[in-house]
Design goal:
Number of helices: 0
Largest sheet: 7 strands, mixed
Distance between the termini: 40 Å
Helix content: under 10%
Order of helices and strands: EEEEEEEEEEE
Shape: globular
Number of strands: 11
Radius of gyration: 13 Å
Structural class: mainly beta
Length: 117
């Protein structure tokens, strides 16, 4: 019953911005770890940004200072604000949700982000 629906991907020029959204249904945000992962062809899915229900954040070094992950408990949604985009940010972005104590991880369907030079 847990479902994650992503939106916001697209094609932008280098230096532009995108805002990814992930709506979560079927579970509350309490005691949760939510993150955004990126996958490129031939590569495994790598963590880009993460936030816990307690507010602790993590960013991959390559996006530090450019990306911001946030959550909105009232809307049951998480977001990834991506600014100063670079071509190397290109990939399929997946949102992820799990309880902080472990258990099953749930994934969004993925949204394509393409940054052109």
């Amino acid at each position: 019953q847990v479902q994650l629906i992503e939106s916001g991907g697209g094609l932008v020029q280098a230096g532009g911005s995108l805002r990814l959204s992930c709506a979560v249904s079927g579970t509350p945000f309490s005691a949760a770890v939510m993150g955004w992962y990126r996958q490129t062809p031939g590569e495994q899915r790598d963590l880009v940004a993460q936030v816990t229900s307690g507010g602790t954040t993590y960013y991959q070094d390559s996006v530090e200072g450019r990306f911001t992950i946030t959550g909105d408990n009232r809307k049951n949604a998480i977001y990834l604000q991506m600014d100063m985009l670079k071509p190397e940010d290109t990939g399929v972005y997946y949102c992820s949700y799990r309880k902080i104590f472990g258990g099953q991880r749930y994934w969004g369907q993925g949204t394509q982000v393409t940054v052109s030079s």
